[in-house]
Automatic annotation (TrEMBL):
One of its GO terms (biological process) is signal transduction. It comes from the Bacteria. Residues 367-562 form the HD-GYP domain. Keywords: Membrane, Transmembrane, Transmembrane helix. It holds the Pfam family HAMP. It comes from Myxococcus llanfairpwllgwyngyllgogerychwyrndrobwllllantysiliogogogochensis. The keyword Manganese does not apply. This is HD domain-containing protein. Residues 306-358 form the HAMP domain.
Length: 568
């Protein structure tokens, strides 16, 4: 109720403002102000058009001239040069063609590139001819040709610039002005006005609206004629002008400015009667309507900000803290109204969420601990059957996690790697001890039985739902990168990433642990063996990650930290 009364009081106070504004505007605004407003509008419009035109022309120009920044472009092999040209063509659809010329002005063989669209031979010849024309007499910087229309009617300008210091050659490019033309065609200058681009001789470059019916010569348009006179008297001046041009029915309110890179002028013009009529309409409807409404809104916003905006901001900040997981956060709002009651409800909710979160964290940690203890117990049941492999599963799990962390895997995937490494040999429970613990070379028949342990392990943990993601590590840790592994003969990236990581860690631990058939190898020898298996048995990226782990942290071999670190 208090909040409602405050809003009602504000509405009563601000209702006086529109009446005061009507009187103030009727006294202070004059015809001179209206004229100046119209001209300022034209001035602002042409500034915006200039910015848009510079963007439309500058972005493809910058992409093409980036070739000049390629180190020793003319010293690169032909294929590399063609690759750079193709890259520019694929990145910028406005770039229609690129041709590379030597310092003598002759086109270099194999260095004329065109976009994916079909280009007729006449267009190719015209492109090269314009490039030759721009190169005549030499150049010190970029230069643009006159605008021409292609076979499809789209305007095109040719850009040429030198490459290297001293000059080692030149690059020319055909740039489509279709986007610039479309922008000007869509640009609305009132109901009857239009905007267009003119070159330094008064020829139309591109334009929209009524200028399309004027043909290619716009030098007789009063704004363009004024510009040409200015250029004749001060050719190097930075030109910008706005005002009334022409007389009688041809009078227009226009503004123009010159693009320094090309020397083109961008012109915006509108008939005087329409320009000033729109300004008068704007004064009546916008200044009397929106102007008063804006002031009312400003006053209301200033008053509302004290009683409503600040509390809402406090609520927003508190809600963001809750969203980030900072349960228990409180908002402090001393107001004794509906907002204050909402704050108390918010604080109660936050405390309840904190209690629930702490309870859930405890349950999750207890469950996670139970999972890990179960997994370790399963792994120990395997290691207990073979004294030579005691601790092998735990080491494989730990090393797999380090490799996964080096590959920027998520915490969830690292946890799955820990479980998968510990359980990767769980299937050996189903292998008879006479084969599992045999200290001599296995026969072919015994080896076939031993190779069943990945499938046995997969069948053992299959019914355990929370170990679903771990099954890949158990079943596929003996698959080989070249596809000759078992049990499914998967190849390359078809082997799950987690299984490839466990396989690498398993191989490394087998090399660095004492077995019935071998003694633990030195770290350097083990890494040499892994290098030899890269690309055949092991994933090269995973081996590279293991090498980085060894280089950064070293590894434990049968309970001893090695001081040696290998370079990756």
């Amino acid at each position: 109720m208090r909040l409602f009364k405050a809003i009602l009081l504000l509405m009563l106070v601000v209702s006086i403002v529109p009446t005061l504004m009507v009187g103030w505007l009727s006294v202070t605004h004059t015809r001179e102000l209206l004229v100046r407003d119209a001209q300022e509008l034209a001035q602002e419009r042409v500034k915006q058009l200039r910015l848009k035109a510079e963007i439309f022309l500058g972005e493809p120009t910058e992409a093409v001239m980036g070739l000049a920044r390629v180190p020793d472009f003319f010293g690169l092999p032909l294929e590399a040069q063609q690759t750079h040209l193709a890259s520019v063509l694929s990145q910028r659809r406005e770039v229609l063609a690129l041709t590379v010329f030597g310092p003598d002005g002759k086109r270099l063989p194999g260095l004329q590139a065109f976009s994916r669209h079909d280009v007729p031979p006449t267009a190719l010849a015209s492109h090269e001819e314009r490039g030759h024309a721009l190169l005549e007499g030499g150049m010190e910087g970029p230069r643009y040709s006159d605008v021409v229309a292609t076979g499809g009617g789209g305007p095109v300008v040719t850009l040429a610039f030198p490459v290297g210091e001293p000059v080692k050659g030149f690059i020319t490019a055909d740039l489509s002005l279709a986007g610039l033309r479309q922008m000007l065609e869509q640009e609305r200058v009132g109901s009857t006005g239009f905007a267009y681009l003119s070159d330094h001789r008064g020829h139309l470059v591109v334009g929209g609206g009524g200028v399309a019916a004027l043909g290619g010569d716009v030098s007789q348009r009063s704004p363009v004629a004024h510009l040409l006179r200015q250029l004749a008297s001060t050719p190097d001046a930075e030109l910008f002008h706005v005002g009334n041009f022409g007389e009688g029915r041809d009078a227009v309110v226009a503004a123009y400015t010159v693009l320094p890179e090309t020397g083109w002028a961008i012109v915006s013009e509108q008939p005087v009667e329409h320009a000033y009529r729109q300004v008068e309409t704007m004064e009546r409807r916008i200044l009397l309507g929106l102007g008063a409404a804006i002031l009312v809104a400003l006053v209301m916003a200033a008053l509302f900000s004290r009683n409503l905006t600040r509390p809402l901001k406090v609520f927003t900040d508190g809600a963001l803290e809750l969203a980030r997981g900072k349960f228990g956060v409180e908002v402090k709002i001393p107001q004794k109204n509906e907002v204050g009651e909402l704050a108390q409800t918010f604080n109660y909710m936050s405390k309840q969420l904190l209690a629930y979160d702490m309870e859930n964290r405890g349950l999750y940690e207890s469950l996670e601990k139970g999972y890990l203890e179960t997994i370790v117990a399963l792994a120990n049941s395997i290691d207990s059957k073979d004294a030579y492999t005691r601790g092998h599963s735990q080491r494989v799990g730990d090393l797999s996690v380090e490799i996964g962390r080096e590959l920027n895997l998520t915490e969830r995937e690292l946890r799955q790697l820990q479980y998968g490494g510990i359980l990767h040999d769980i299937g050996k429970i189903g292998i008879v001890e006479s084969i599992l613990c045999k200290q001599t070379k296995l026969t072919d028949q015994e080896m076939a039985i031993m190779r069943e342990h990945p499938a046995i392990g997969d069948a053992i943990i299959g019914p355990v739902s929370f170990l679903g993601a771990v099954r890949a590590c158990v079943r596929h840790h003996h698959e080989r990168w070249d596809g000759t592994g078992y049990p499914d003969k998967l190849r390359g990236d078809d082997i799950p990433l987690l299984a490839r990581i466990v396989a690498c860690a398993d191989t490394f631990d087998a090399c660095t642990s004492t077995r019935p058939y071998q003694k633990a190898m030195p770290l350097e020898k083990a890494m040499e063996i892994l290098d030899s298996l890269t690309g055949a048995q092991l994933d090269p990226q995973v081996v590279a990650a293991l090498q980085r782990v060894v280089a950064k942290k070293g590894v434990r071999l049968e309970g001893h930290r090695l001081p040696v670190k290998l370079a990756s």
